[in-house]
Amino acid sequence: IVFWFLPYAIATGNAFIVKPSEKVPLTMMKIFEILNQLDMPKGLVSLVHGGKDSVDAILEHPKIKAISFVGSTPVARYIYSKGTANGKRVQAQGGAKNPVVILPDSDIEMSTKIIADSVYGCAGQRCLAASTIITVDDHKREIKDALYETVKSRTTGYGWDDGVSMGPVINPESKSRIEGLIQKGIDEGAKLLLDGRNTSISGYEDGNFIAPTILENVALDKELITTEIFGPVMSLISLKNIDEALSFVNSGSYGNMACIFTGSGANARKFRNEADAGNIGINIGVAAPMAQFPFSGWKDSFFGDLHGQGKHAIEFFTQTKVIIERWPNIWSRKF
Q1: pLDDT tens for residues 62-88?
Q2: 27 located within any domain
Q3: Is residue 137 in a domain?
Q4: Which of the listed residues 73, 205, 225, 232 has the most CB atoms within 10 Å of its CB?
Q5: What contacts 57, CB < 8 A, 6 or more positions away?
Q6: Taking CA 109 as the corner, what is the angle to CA 103 and CA 113, rounded to the nearest 5 degrees?
Q7: CB of 222 within 8 A of CB of 201?
Q8: Residue 266: how many other CB atoms lie within 10 Å
Q9: Which are the contacts of 34, defined by CB distance < 8 A and separation ≥ 6?
Q10: What's this model's pTM, rounded to 2 decimal places?
């Protein structure tokens, strides 16, 4: 995530401070071991650890001019409001509840495999993970059954073991929260099609494992359908047509990503024009833009006006200056 911002910041002449998540500090420590081998000016890139006190110190420091953030929506809103109140530029990327629509004219076998990778990659702990899967006109349950069989075949375990396709969630608190949300969905009327709770992996009995889970017919008027689970849980709903699917997609408070699987160019065009999300995927499960394009997010998925990556990042990390000069040999102005 840091590399959505860091290269652009130093390329435009800035020093850069990285404050990694206190839950996963080791990755950035390893990266800084590599960065320290480069012939860069001392202090150009710095690493600071800590929790909220460190965050507030950054947000309040008068010499820090801009803040980039990726995390949950409540924290993104806090970062944006406090940072801007202190006169800083802020780009704060928040949470997501990414919908994926699958139409009956799609390649169902391949589409369901791609969708499963999107939902359960990184155990669902990423901002572009698919969350709510919307099957359209699936009266014979061909799409649902294909999704079920694909998901059921995935293996949970220690990531370095052969054949494992999904590892644990980040910590015991996340495991407890996710399992609580699964139960909440059931209490709200959803059918537990595949239960990943109470998963035990031999040799790693104390691990924070939750196997792939599917909740079918999640209530559209209850809380779970709008809650970012951030875990290996698929919310599966059925709608009649693409118009109903688009209406559902656009009704959410988040706008990070929306994808559709279809064999119809007309449906694809309609979706990319009408879906209210910053990153749109057509027959793609994770609509992550390449570096030359901004990592867009809309609504409660982003606070700010210039996103990470692409031209947005160059503009964000640049303080513009306009200089107007004249050097005539003979002055033409008369007073």
Answers
A1: 999 999 999 999 999 999 999 999 999
A2: yes
A3: yes
A4: 232
A5: none
A6: 95
A7: no
A8: 9
A9: none
A10: 0.93
* Whole-angstrom distance, CA of residue 142 vs CA of residue 316: 47
Domain co-membership, 71 together with 161: no
**Domain residue limits at 53:** 2-94+301-316
Q: pLDDT averaged over the chain?
A: 96
Does 86 share its domain with 168?
no
Residues 73 and 162 occupy one common structural domain: no
Q: Domain tally for the chain?
A: 2
For residue 19, the tally of other CB atoms under 10 A from its CB is 20
Distance (Å, whole) CA 264 – CA 106: 8
Catalytic residue of the set 66, 127, 258, 280:
127
Structure tokens at 9: 């910041």
Q: What is the CATH number of the domain that holds 230?
A: 3.40.309.10
Digit-coded pLDDT (tens) for 253-289:
999 999 999 999 999 999 999 999 999 999 999 999 9
Q: N- to C-terminal Cα distance for the chain? A: 59
Of 35-39, 142-146, 193-197, give the lowest mean pLDDT range: 35-39
Contact yes or no for 196/153 (Cβ under 8 A): no
Decide if 259 is catalytic: no
Neighbours of 25 (CB within 10 A): 14
CB atoms within 10 A of CB 220: 12
315-325 pLDDT, tens per residue?
Answer: 999 999 999 99
- Do 133 and 237 lie in a common domain? yes
Do residues 107 and 49 both lie within one domain? Answer: no
Please state, as a whole number, how many other Cβ atoms lie within 10 Å of the Cβ of residue 187.
Answer: 12
pLDDT at 332: 86
At residue 334, the pLDDT reads: 87
Whether 156 and 67 share a structural domain: no
Q: Classify residue 224 by its DSSP letter.
A: G
Residue 326 in domain: no
Q: How far apart are CA 212 and CA 271, in angstroms?
A: 28
Compute the distance between CA of residue 102 and CA of residue 264 in angstroms, rounded to an integer. Answer: 11
Based on the domain organization, do 144 and 255 belong to the same domain?
yes
